[in-house]
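Hi everyone,

Forwarding the result from last night's run.
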Amino acid sequence: MKIAFLGLGVMGSPMARHLAAKGHEVTVYNRTAAKAEAWVAAHGGRFGRTPAEAAAGQDIVMSCVGNDDDLRAIILGAEGALSAMKAGAILVDHTTASADVAREIAAKAADKGIGFIDAPVSGGQAGAENGVLTVMCGGDAETYARAEPAILCFARASRLMGPAGSGQLTKMVNQICIAGLVQALSEGVHFAQSAGLDVEAVLDVISKGAAGSWQMENRGKTMNQGKFDFGFAVDWMRKDLSICLSEARRNGATLPVTALVDQFYGEVQKNGGRRWDTSSLITRLTKAE
């Protein structure tokens, strides 16, 4: 297929690379044009100077940017993708954003005869690099069925969760669960350190039981080693948790642990950890040692 990919950050660049590697004709756009030029030099295809230029004539347009405002700019702006997309094309957005903006874009796309899927991802930079992301999608079944083969170029799992906005709501559940898990793991590692235990041995044995999790397997030992350079930054996690808490105020959900962990991440930011990965939550507990 002819596919445009808008946004070549740590997630978007490898996602677009997998599309090209699977034989799709890929056109890329990035706000910093030099990054798009470098991507084309490395992987082929072509680049557009604007989102509209990249999106013109494409079967599918995919996007992965920072937040709601960034998304509106590249999709709905004067030179946004929707202004140039052909009727019958599909827009798939992989940004972690609000359910509101997903529904807004879905409605405006439908007015132009364009399908829309909100499709936030989980798996972090490593998942994008290795093509094993998990994708949670919102939209109608027919549009999703047409988009799914392209999504599976960089995903190990993808599922339609309901109408537009459902993908974003599911990603909120994902981030709520991660927040609690990382805090619990931080406390567990800190406790093991304070007790004088062999932390790696502790993690090895308890990861085989009910306490085991992806976070423990992939971040437990590096947390113990004080290494926090693994992709998904604290700044982005706070953005995501803000979306979760805002949606909870609307739907009446009670999220006391999520709200508390969000405050803890605020402390990490103040301590210089804005670009550390989310496992840096443990630094709140160990900073006085």
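DSSP finds 13 helices and nine strands in the chain.

Cheers,
N.
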